[in-house]
Amino acid sequence: EGLERDQNGYVMYCPCMGRFGNQADHFLGALGFAKGLNRTLVLPPWVEYKPGNPRSIQVPFDTYFKVEPLTKFHRVVLMHQFMEEFGSTVWPPEERIAFCYVPRHNSEGCNAKEGNPFGPFWDTFGVDFVGSEFYRGLTYDVHHQSMADKWNDLYPASKWPVLAFTGAPASFPVQENNRGLHKYLEWSDAVLNKAKKFINSLPYGHFIGVHLRNGVDWVRACEHVHHSPNLFAAPQCLGYRNEHGKATTELCLPSFSTIVKKLKRVIKATGAASVFVASDSDHLIPELTKELRKMKVSVHKHEPADPHVDLAILGRSKHYIGNCVSSFSAFAKRERDAAGFPSSFWAFPLEKEK
Ligand code: GFB
Questions:
Q1: Which distant-in-sequence residues (6+ apart) come within 8 Å of 305 by Cβ?
Q2: Gap from CA of 176 to ligand 1 centroid (Å)
Q3: Which ligand 1 atom is at minimum distance from the Cα of 21?
Q4: Is the shortest distance between the CB of 280 and ligand 1 below 6 Å?
Q5: How confident is the model at residue 351 (pLDDT cuts 50, 70, 90)?
Q6: Ligand 1 test: best mutation among 280, 321, 324, most atoms within 8 Å of CB?
Q7: What pLDDT digit, counting tens, does each position of 311-346 carry?
Q8: Which of 42, 139, 191, 354 is most buried, by CB atoms within 10 Å?
Q9: 139-164 per-position pLDDT tens digit
Q10: Residue 187: DSSP 8-state
Q11: 97/216 same-domain check
Q12: Residue of 19, 218, 230, 251 with the most ligand 1 atoms within 8 Å of its CB, for mutation
């Protein structure tokens, strides 16, 4: 049975910035944006990067998440389904216009396919653009200033059935008003089953989930906290206007003693029997095992490395300790908030400056 065309039109975009955590922030914003405009959201694939591969890889949206729960909030369609059903009718090749805020790459147009992941993303669906449209003056914040009406007045669906954005029509980090939309994001059974299998292999009793973001890219990024008091996902802790302080080095890259102190406190409070460590680089398994031996608490990681399975496991722990600044950490925090599960962060609340 074929899909029915949405007369109110579609929002389509490339998740062309950052890795999974960034793309997830953008996804929630794009979902809120599409809802505000009352257009169906085309679910883009997730963009991934493999070492040594100059072209991004596009992973279908539903590899990681169920589609059905999203429909409880708003109309959505997988991108490949949209292209198969409507690629030649609703959005024929000669009418494909790329949307961007201002011209990109010192040129006259959006250059929506210039560079990686831009080109590989649209090539996945055989999309080329015949023109550009700049929406200077409009924002993605549909929660204020009748912004949705402004979009729909300027771009009625009858004339513009598809708004195809060069990047996500969303802010980073995710706008506060859109955080709650995370509750419609449910892991696919493939991810969930791997997480559950791992959890069942842990020692009997509660486990604490922790995220240690400590790879070289992160160490380098954390050198900038002093010039960027609200770096990356830090607003999740510090507030969107730094109401709760400015980012510190410890907040971005907690020291081993900060990690151990916090972990011991949480283990005591919860009576946990084990700790699950998710990390992009150093899980500190031997070091933490040594520190927690007296408490008879074991320390574990999931192998092989799998960011989505790590997140799904973090989402299901008795307590979770994340990194305020990391958008990867923020994903698990939002998932747990939606489920009513408790979380905390390394080095937060901030200690008073000495
Ligand atoms: O997700 P992401 O945008 O979060 O990028 P941040 C970090 C990537 O590192 C993830 C891997 O998408 C994963 O591929 N990664 C991080 C992990 N933590 C884990 C983990 O616990 N387990 C596994 N398996 N993989 C920032 C970006 O990353 O990094 C900025 O926001 C910038 O754009 C900065 O690039 C340097 O927010 O942590």
A1: none
A2: 21
A3: 1
A4: yes
A5: confident
A6: 280
A7: 999 999 999 999 999 999 999 999 999 999 999 999
A8: 42
A9: 999 999 899 999 999 999 999 999 99
A10: B
A11: no
A12: 19
Range of the domain at 82: 10-177
Are 211 and 321 found together in one domain? Answer: yes
Q: Which of 177, 204, 224 is the last residue of a domain?
A: 177
313 lines ligand 1 (CB under 6 A): no
Alpha helices for the chain (secondary structure H): 20-37, 61-64, 68-71, 79-86, 118-123, 147-154, 189-201, 216-222, 235-238, 249-252, 256-270, 285-292, 307-314, 327-339
Q: Is residue 2 part of a domain?
A: no
Q: Which of 50, 328, 335 to mutate to test the pocket of ligand 1 (most atoms within 8 A of CB)?
A: 328
Atom of ligand 1 nearest to the CA of 323: 38
**328 CA to centre of ligand 1 in angstroms:** 5
Domain stop point among 127, 153, 177: 177
**Residue 45 counted as domain residue:** yes
Residues 235 and 316 in one domain: yes
Number of domains in the chain: 2
ipTM above 0.90, yes or no: yes
**Would the CB of 279 count as within 6 Å of ligand 1?**
yes
**Token pair 């399975």 in the structure block, residue:** 309
